[in-house]
Every structure is written in structure tokens, then in C-alpha cells.
Amino acid sequence: MNLYINNHSFHYELENLTRLFYPNEKIKVIKDDYNYELPYIATEYADKLIVEVRVGDYIRREEAEPENNNERMMCELLYRILCELTSATPPWGMITGVRPVKLYRRLKNDEGEQKADSYFKDKLFVSDSKLRLTKLTETIEKRIIDLSEDKSFSLYISIPFCPSRCYYCSFVQSSTERSKHLIEPYVNLLCDEIRSTAEIASSLGLKLETIYMGGGTPTTLSAEQLDKVLSTVNQSFDTSNLREFTVEAGRPDTIKEDKLISIKENKVGRISINPQTLNDKVLRSIGRRHTALETIKAYELARKVGFQSINMDMIAGLPDESEESFVSTLNKLCALSPECITIHTLSMKRSSTLTQDGTPIDADTSKRAASMLDYALEKLTQENYLPYYLYRQSRMVGNLENTGWSKPGFESLYNIFVMDETHTILGCGAGAVTKLKKPGDTYLKRIFNFKYPYEYIDRYKEQLARKDEVCTFYQNCFL
After folding, report:
1. Sheet holding 207-215, edge to edge
2. Can you name the residues that pair with 344 across neighbouring β-strands?
3. What is the fold of 147-464?
4. Distance between CA atoms of residues 105 and 408, nearest Å
5. What CATH fold (topology level) applies to the domain 2-86?
6. DSSP state, 276?
7. With the C-alpha atoms ordered 124, 127, 133, 136, is the resulting torsion angle positive or negative?
8. Is residue 365 within 8 Å of residue 317, measured between CB atoms?
9. Kind and range of the H or E element at 49?
10. Where are the domains of the chain?
11. Whole-prediction pTM value?
12. Could you tell me which residues come within 8 angstroms of residue 299 by beta carbon, excluding any fewer than 6 positions away?
């Protein structure tokens, strides 16, 4: 699809909006060119806002007078045309961003709840069901966000190794089959970065609220390596204000008793065990090397070791997964009764194996995923779970969402803080991103770690020097 941008700067939102309706096509953005080539979407800001769409025999042109928010109005013109052309009505309307709950909260704080509701429904065309989900999630989030102080922060620790790469995944990570020799030197340098980061946090008087070790799959490390990293955290940081410590165990085939004991003995109170599905056929089709039975055994083992806060992930819209299969998995997870269940929707990342192999996002898959989420909402509500955080991703099947559900009192604070961008996140490890939040402001400064483990190891001194920017940032904040 050719997208022409003439005499305005609204290309980012218009491109993302176009992708909602054409998720499998390459969107070619062309600026300041009136020689339109089919198929095309032509947008222009002259005396009026103009959108013209021509696809096959379909042609439609809409115009509108300029208003206070011309970007939104031009998006509305295009949205109405594409809804008619494709006979599709996205459940999140024109929203293409990651954080709809944060947007709703800002509107509610600025204009009041009634106007926020009206803007979502009448200006962004969000469906009633998604607005209700947003409002309920926002209420739960706000209670937790209000607890955070100006000088609080969270710590993210990256373990970018996995036993193998799932076919839907695009995260930067290394399989242990190819990168086993990197793990030990990586762990040693990661511990050094953790100690250095703790010194910086202490010198600035920052208060550590939550810790999250993710990846990758942290439990690809041995029990001894896990102990080394986690004990370094506990020995280096002041944890007197710590409210939550999570390790994303993730893949059931990496969860062993000695690893769980090591995690538990290092004051970790919350873990994730992520089956994605309990259908063995679907597990094989997405490149998972474990069975549904292994997931159940890993969960039972975690309970035996003493974990009382466990999250389990599912993905709606996986290839070869029927609605009946999804329902069966969710029912089985509810019977296990973990404290949190996170329902993701499949996102077709460009570099994932599924996308590279040409797996399309079609109307049937989108409809099936939407039905799965509808069932999840009904079932989890009945089981007394509440939605506590929500986010969206690009190229998501059906333009849907990811939602974390929890039993009351077991919400993941870290997930909320990250999605709301509540406070600073200090990141350690390959691929980690430090996000420095200016207190009382929306400004964020990002410091990126090197992505790949070999790069992190080879350029570690250069990597560590970047952390000096943390001190400079806070010194400027509190001058």
C-alpha cells in the first residue's frame, strides 16, 4: 500500500492506522509527491484536510475543515474510509499506541471521567467493551501508582538466553545451543554491572521498590549462576523498601527444583511459569520443547518449594489453536489457581519465524482471537481475577491487547510501573533499557545497553560508562 503524505507531518499515526487494516502488507510512505500509484492512500493538508483512497475499483475522497487537532481529524477521515473499504471495525478504534490506559488516565485527570469516556468513544471510536476494560484496569492501577514516591525506582535484570527460540518471538536472545560458552562470562559481568548500578542508586538516595529478572529465560542459568546473580542483587542494593521481587522462570522445560530453591532462598517472592497453551500439538507448532504435563509439574514443584505468588501466561490467536483448545487451557489454569494469569494476543513481529514464513493475519484468526479474549474476560471475572495492567503491540492479531489478571492483592507492581512509566527503571544486562523519569514530569531519558550477549561482553567497559548519565540526569533534576 502506498501512503502519500503531502504538506503535513502526520505520517507516523497515519502509517500505524493503515497497518491496522493492512497488517500483512508493506506500507510505503511517500512524502510530497502527487504522482499517485495504485493502490494508494493520499493525504494532504491544504485549505482543508483531504484523504483520498483508491484500491482496485474502490475510490473515496473525504475532506474536513482544520480543527484544533488536525492529526486526529485526518486520522478520523482515513479511519472511516478504511472501515468502509475493509468492512472491519477495530475494537480499539483509532488507538494505535501501546498504553491506552495511560492515555485514559491523563484525559480523566485533565478533563474528568465523563469527558474521557466521551473522547474514547466519540473521537477515538473505542468499543464499549474495551472502554469498560480500560476503566476497570485504570482504577486498579491508580491505587498502586499512587504508592510510588519521587525517588523510587525499579531494577530490571536481563538474562538474554533461551533453550530455543519460539516461532512467534522476536526478542533479542541467544539459544543455549549456540551461546552456551557466553553464559559464564556474561553472568560475571552482569554481577559487576549490578554492583555498579547499586552504588549509583545509593549515591543518589534512590529507593528500590521492585525487581524483575526477565529475558529470555532466566532459568536457563544453572542454580549456581542464579544464586550468584540474585545474591549479588541482595548484597548490593538496599532492599529495605522493596515491595516485589520477580523472576520470570518462563519455559517449564528449564524449571528444576534446585533452581527454584536458589530463587526462593534469595528472597524472590514472585515467579512466572508460562505455558502459552496446554495443547501439545500447538506447543510443537510454535517451537516449544516441552509438554503440557511438564507445565503442570513445574507449577506443582514451585508450590512445593513454597512460592505463593505465581503468574502463568497464555497467548490468544496461536496457529493451530482452536477456541475450544484455548478454553480448555484457560479452564485448566484456573483450576490450578495461580495468583496471576496474563492473557497475551499473538503479535506478528517482523523478525519472528512465523512472519518470516509468511503466516498471515487474516480475518478468521482475528475473529477467533477476539472470541478467546471475550471468554477470558468472562471466565477470569467469574474466578475473581481482576485486570490490573494492559498494553498493546504493533501487528497484533485483531488489533487486540495483552491483559494481566490477578487475584486481589497479587498485582505485579513492576508491570504497572513499566506500563504507566511511573518512575525510573534501571536496567542491567544485554538488551536492557534504563528509563530515567523526571519526578513530576512526563520526560523520560533512555540509556540503551548493547543488545547481544557477545557485544555486551566485548564492549563492557564502554557499556558501564553509559551509567554515568544516571548521575547527571538526577543532579539536573534536583538542582
Report:
1. 386-391, 402-406, 340-345, 310-316, 270-273, 244-250, 207-215, 152-159, 424-428, 433-437, 444-448
2. 315
3. pyruvate-formate lyase- activating enzyme (3.80.30)
4. 21
5. Double Stranded RNA Binding Domain (3.30.160)
6. B
7. positive
8. yes
9. strand 49-55
10. 2-86, 100-144, 147-464
11. 0.95
12. 273, 310, 312, 336, 338
225 by DSSP, 3-state: which?
helix
Q: Give DSSP secondary structure letters for 373-410.
A: HHHHHHHHHHTT-EEEEEE--TTBGGG--EEEEE-TT-
| Rounded Cα distance, 303 and 212, in Å | 20
Distance, in Å, from the CA atom of 161 to the CA atom of 221, rounded to the nearest integer, reads 8
CA dihedral (425, 430, 431, 437) in degrees, to 10, reads 20
The pLDDT tens digits along the chain (479 residues) read 999 999 999 999 999 999 999 988 899 999 999 999 999 999 999 999 999 999 999 999 999 999 889 999 999 999 999 999 999 999 999 999 999 999 999 999 999 999 999 999 999 999 999 999 999 999 999 999 998 988 999 999 999 999 888 888 876 555 666 788 999 999 999 999 999 999 999 999 999 999 999 989 999 999 999 999 999 999 999 999 999 999 999 899 999 999 999 999 999 999 999 999 999 999 999 988 899 999 999 999 999 999 999 999 999 999 999 999 999 999 999 999 999 999 999 998 877 888 888 888 888 899 999 999 999 999 999 999 999 999 999 889 999 999 999 999 999 999 999 999 999 999 999 999 999 999 888 899 999 999 999 999 999 999 999 999 999 999 888 65
CA nearest neighbour of 191 among 162, 152, 158: 158
- State the amino acid at position 354 in one-letter form: L
